[in-house]
Write a structure and sequence with these properties.
The chain is an alpha/beta fold. The chain has three domains: 169 residues, 3-Layer(aba) Sandwich (Rossmann fold); 153 residues, no CATH class; 84 residues, Antifreeze-like/N-acetylneuraminic acid synthase C-terminal domain (Type Iii Antifreeze Protein Isoform Hplc 12, Alpha-Beta Complex), CATH 3.90.1210.10. 39% of the residues lie in helices and 19% in strands. It has 16 helices and 17 strands. Helix 12 links the parallel strand 10 and strand 11. InterPro entries: Asp/hSer_DH_NAD-bd, DRL_cat, NAD(P)-bd_dom_sf.
Length: 428
Amino acid sequence: MLGLNRKLARLENDGAYIKVGLVGAGQMGRGMISQIESMKGMRVVITADLNVDNITSAYENAGIDFSNIIVTEDSDAAENAIKENKVIATKNMKLVTSLTEVDVVVDATGVPNIGAEIAWDAILNKKHIVMLNVEADVTVGPILKKVADASGVVYTGSAGDEPGAIMELYDFADAMGFEIVALGKGKNNPLNLEANPTTAEEEAKSKGSSPKMLASFQDGTKTMVEMNAVANATGFLPDVPGMHGFKGTVSELPGIFLEKERGGVLNGRKVVDFVNGVAPGVFAIIASDKEEVNAEMKYLKMGDGPNYILYRPYHLTSLETPLSIAKAYFDHEATIAPYYGLQAETVTVAKKDLNEGDHLDTIGGYTVYGKLLKADEAKESRALPIGLVDSNVKLTRSIKKGEIITYDDIIQTKESTIWKLRSMQDNA
């Protein structure tokens, strides 16, 4: 089987290319446009963003002449321009999901409800969908995958995102017959459950990132959501609510991920977790019950056992997304998807004392953070999934800091796509 690089080169040699539609021209989307423009056999032919200047500058920074960038909301004009090898900038995300010329859609918005709408529209229009929106995926990914499968298209998370990078290690170890004890990622910063856009503002400015996005990493929500996606893809579960969040170096991890009867703290195997001290890497803890395999692993300097570590010290976020685009297009396969359905749930926890009548804000905001539970635990307590949180959610009672917010504690003042899809998913 040809590698993706050879398949892309052959496609270009045949005078064709994969036509990508992108929604979201923020940091992730802009980087992806430039990366793809350096590749063979692929191009971002249309991008939607509320700020069209973000799109045109992204295309120009990628080396596309301004005369070849067409700003339009008209589908016929867009189709004709793409046929002439021009690219489109638009404010209308539905133009991206509906154009005949588009082969694969990428959601790089980071907003759960918008991501759910993009994925739904793309699937209904028979287009593969790549999600750079893990928050939407862990909330309604199971139903989106089910509908995509029925429609004959691919629903997938992205290579380069940590869940996708972890899944590559999982697939490698699983194919070789190793027992996989744990799957995890490093955390870049100490857990601060009170982080918000104000506390994150100075650091975000120095990094050129969004204060809200940085706060969502600092308060742990992003980590919970990412490992939620891994749980839904593999069936692995958090060992304790919120995971352990160990501290350690790469070489120490095989000894950290041990069960209680072996002198460790785990209640069992097949767990997802995060570790402070190994960022930005991802890892799989593996083992074997075969004497010859263990002898070979020791000879290969993989450690003394009983556990060994597979470690990847990088993930290139949206710069790797083109690999998932190509895999969906050529091989009709996902990089990562919720194969096991809803195995875990990132639930909503009050970041501070909240009052009856308060509206929640968003992930990385001032009111709530996410905590990973097993799905049956979340269902039993009627916990509100973090992906359903937005300013349309209003509290019907006061909530203490650190308390899980449930469906019984809120009313929804305006229905959204992600709420409709979640209701369909829960009632399927």
